Amino acid sequence: MLSIRLKLVSALMLTCLLFSAIIYIATPHMVKHEMIEGELREKIISYQPEIEDYIQKNITWGTPHSAKLFANSQKNPLKQPNEEKNTLDFALFDDNGNVIIPGAGFKIGDTTKLNDLNDVESFIVAQSTLIHAIAIGNLELSPRQLQSIHALEETLLFSMFAALAVILPLGFIGASRMANALQRLNKAVNRMAAGDLAQQVPVNSEDEVGQLSESFNSMNDQLVKAYNQLEESNTLIAAQAEKMKELSIRDELTGLYNRRFFNREASATQAEAIDVKAPFTLVLGDVDHFKNINDQYSHATGDIVLQKIAEILLREIRSSDLLARYGGEEIVLALPNTDLHEASDIINRIREHIENYPWQEINESLQVTMSFGIAHDYSDKKLEKQLDLADTELYRAKREGRNRVCCSTTQLAHAL
Asked: Which residues contact 125 (CB under 8 A, 6 or more apart)?
């Protein structure tokens, strides 16, 4: 496929050759036409004294009668003996088409429409009188005239090649600049298509290509701006969606997962543990005497207590553990790959941290403890059943004095 540079240079070269050929062919004919017109002018000038004299002596001019009188009164200098070699035949007419000098197929007394004649030459004589002339035949050129035309043809031929020698390099430079600008535009468009949207091309001219480059840069700026705005909108929407998702699975007060999210995730974790026969432990915890804390110290203090307990729990559990607020002052923990002994150690450590927390910083007489129930048995293969076991152990911890961790002795014996 031809490049645009080659196409432009080829078009320029063909245009130059065609234009030069037209000039080379047409110029000799134009020169010859000028020579014929010069001959006609000389002949009319030779009649100018007679026409002026006739007009001064006669009132009428431009009628068939006056044209016939003038023609009959003249010797025809258009056919002098010394011009026998000249094969041109001339005829002169007044402004109304009446023959005043016969020739070229017209006789004295003939009248014609000047618009019907070809190559009519018009001249002014006697200040305001129009004389029209035609010539037919070939003008026999003298050796000197032929030499002049030949010299003109050689000059035109040389000028043609000289012009090509100058125009082609300049045309190649111009075409190269245009092609380079278009190539830069093409590369920029291809990079945009590949995903690299931010593209700018240099503007090196004020012509159509330069205007195209400016339009491309402006369009690219607008496109990149629109794309960035869209990206910002998408990022904002994604962040808001993530925030909404977090709000839907988080407890607003403590920031822990909520019950709905815990049930879904813990069920999946339990099912996976059952498939691979791995240990899986559930823990339910409850703040001791939480109603008294609300009643004695205010609900705001109760909220702070829950938030501090959530902080302690999050700090002490592992990244693989799942923690949620299960309702009111209850929390629930899922401990995958954790047997009963490990779970008991983890929860007792958490219980001690809660008991030893400086609650007096919130209120001088405030003391907070928690009770926990642990369930390790998932033989029923249902999360609800295992939670019921943990809830049973939690209530046993409450009955046995609170601030303790309880698990079924049967489970413990099974674990041993």
From this structure: 44, 47, 48, 51, 52, 131
